[in-house]
């Protein structure tokens, strides 16, 4: 090789190297612009502290979660409090998630992995939008089809085709790039009922419980003279099934709802059943249970009346040192009870959707409450 050929070779290598470097830099620029570099964060610019509203929308539902006065509420449910824990978990996941796979996929193919925008035909995903207090968009992405991972050792029938191990995602500003993340984000749903805080009444220390039609005499009423005493029919007549009594009373301490009614007046059908529970703390819980016009669910409204005792009656022969300790315990217990009752009274603003099976123990007839009465199928 002569000198001239060597110089030509060096120049050619420099040209090719420069072109390769330019292409490499362009690729890096595209990755950075799209946020789609393998191992990079999915939403590198999103800061949780800036988020004041989160909106999720799919082909059937929409939910708008808004931060107001230091709490989150569900706009589609009349401003009912939202679960801060669920919202926080979603935002933290999205901020920390990293890209595990990235491919260039044209818009016509998005529907195949359920990444089309909701409202634009089949193959739509779940749109998630974040905005700041001024309404400025912070991030927008579409969550698509879940990525399944097969596990031959998993014996569950539902795992036959694989278990959710990731999800396809499309981020606004990333062009035609489709991303895969290693979390299925199963709680990122657009159903408003899934985001409500589920704190509900916890009626305890119940003294009497009566159930009957609104405005009429109760079908049955049970009572006990002391907190750990035996339940009996208040008016006598037939032996009470202790199991049915305990189940009905305990249900008032663990009742759970599925959703909040949007228009309870239009959704209800027929005359409601009313359950009234009096407690040893001088509180009265009143629940109205109305059958929903469509389906088997019930619409339930709750009110709490009465005032808890402000002092404790001393026990007979109580010693001074015991009195001081018990008074302190009473004050601490009462403080917690007053706080709980205040939160329960705030629940009266809304009407709740509760499943028939959940509310079932409070819908029993007197015959169902009689000892030895075997409940048959209802029609």
User: Helical content, roughly?
Assistant: 10-25%
* Structural class label: alpha+beta
Q: Give the overall average pLDDT.
A: 87
Query: In one word, what is the shape?
Result: elongated
| Gyration radius from CA atoms, angstroms | 31 Å
Order of helices and strands: HEEEEHEEEEEEEEHEHEEEHEHH
Major beta sheet summary:
9 strands, antiparallel
Task: Domain count, please report it.
Answer: 2
Unreliable segments of 5+ consecutive residues: 5-35
The number of helical elements comes to 7
Q: Give me the count of strands.
A: 17
Give the CA-CA distance, first to last residue. Answer: 100 Å
Q: Give the amount of beta strand, in percent.
A: 25-35%
- Strand order, biggest sheet? 4-3-2-1-6-7-8-9-5
Polypeptide structure, described:
- This protein is an alpha+beta fold and 379 residues long.
- It has two domains: 148 residues; 164 residues, no CATH class.
- 25% of the residues lie in helices and 28% in strands.
- It has a nine-stranded antiparallel sheet, with no helix packed on it. Strands 12-11-10-14-15-16-17-13 form an eight-stranded antiparallel sheet.
- Strand 10 and strand 11 form a beta hairpin.
- The chain is elongated, with a radius of gyration of 31 Å.
- About 8% of the residues have low confidence.
Give a quick set of tags describing it.
379 residues; 7 helices; 28% strand
